[in-house]
Amino acid sequence: MKSPFKADILRGKVALLTGGGSGIGFEIATQFGKHGASVAIMGRRIDVLHSAVSTLQSFGIPAVGFEGDVRKKEDAKRVVDSTVKHFGKIDILVNAAAGNFLVSSEDLSPNGFRTVMDIDSVGTFTMCHEALVYLKKGGPGRSSSTGGTILNISATLHYTASWYQIHVSAAKAAVDAITRNLALEWGTDYDIRVNGIAPGPIGDTAGISKLAPEEINSKAREYMPLYKLGEKWDIAMAAVYLASDAGKYINGTTLVVDGGLWLSHPRHLPKEAVKQLSRVVERKSKAAPVGIPTSKL
Ligand code: COA
């Protein structure tokens, strides 16, 4: 699908993306590149990284891949430093690396819980912490008068509660807290904008095939009025918007990109029934003098 943004909206920017070798992270890397940015992608699987970098380069995007695990501080530091060594600076950090699986709280071991917290929450903080020196206004390689920007990929699971996702709900709630607190502290001190994106179910991703196989998807369509799958492109466009100067006054927000899905509830009454019911109730209340209980009417 064609981007509605100008192709040079991110010209001259350097982006580092964790989890950038596949899924949503890769689509953001691709769209950043197509809008003028140079991209460094970080991931654990070297073969996935190689193929992602070749694809990006085949689009004419300056791209490089660095193997690393966001759970390891030394990997985070090495990848951040290598990105700056390769491209001279970092303007945009995207934390898209995540771990997930469906499991009931009863069956989830504390180590399973910790593993997802470590990847999603601690990993996000570690990457932000290592990149800070390069993102802050006046930091190494920064010629512009502003600081860089951070995008944290979150979720909507924790706005309510989600079956068999206690670990991810807790981890993404922490990610949102990181987004707001860094926006406050680093926005004030270093002119760095920190925002998040909370995707709904996105087709053709590891997340959707792991968490919502086809039989769940078709059931969800029956009872959730707003249920429909998004595309990786939808998330990437939100990322381009937030990372570009179009988002220069946006700081500390997590943008929900889910077609309104998290607001969904089953419809208990059809719209026509509500209209009729409402008219009857209104007529009754107009006829009734104030203070007389409706049971007496
Ligand atoms: N159900 C229950 N527990 C699970 C699990 C599952 N499906 N998968 C892993 N765990 C538990 C393990 O049992 C282990 O706990 P234990 O030591 O108490 O037994 C703990 O999690 C760590 O598992 P391990 O396999 O050593 O972790 P890992 O670092 O190799 O893998 C994961 C990390 C678990 C997140 C893995 O699913 C992963 O890397 N996935 C790829 C990324 C991804 O999930 N992307 C989707 C994004 S939506």
From TrEMBL:
**Record bears the keyword Metal-binding:** no
Q: Does the keyword Oxidoreductase apply?
A: yes
Q: Which InterPro entries match?
A: DECR2-like (IPR045017), NAD(P)-bd_dom_sf (IPR036291), SDR_fam (IPR002347)
**Source domain of life:** Eukaryota
Catalysed reaction(s) here are: a (2E,4Z)-dienoyl-CoA + NADPH + H(+) = a 4,5-saturated-(3E)-enoyl-CoA + NADP(+); a (2E,4E)-dienoyl-CoA + NADPH + H(+) = a 4,5-saturated-(3E)-enoyl-CoA + NADP(+)
Q: Which residues form the signal peptide?
A: none
Q: What class of enzyme is it?
A: oxidoreductase
Annotated TM spans: none
Q: Name one GO molecular function term.
A: oxidoreductase activity, acting on the CH-OH group of donors, NAD or NADP as acceptor
List its EC numbers.
1.3.1.124
- Protein keywords: NADP, Oxidoreductase
Q: Coiled-coil stretches, from where to where?
A: none
* CDD domains assigned to the protein according to its UniProt record, in alphabetical order: TER_DECR_SDR_a
* Listed name of the protein: 2,4-dienoyl-CoA reductase [(3E)-enoyl-CoA-producing]
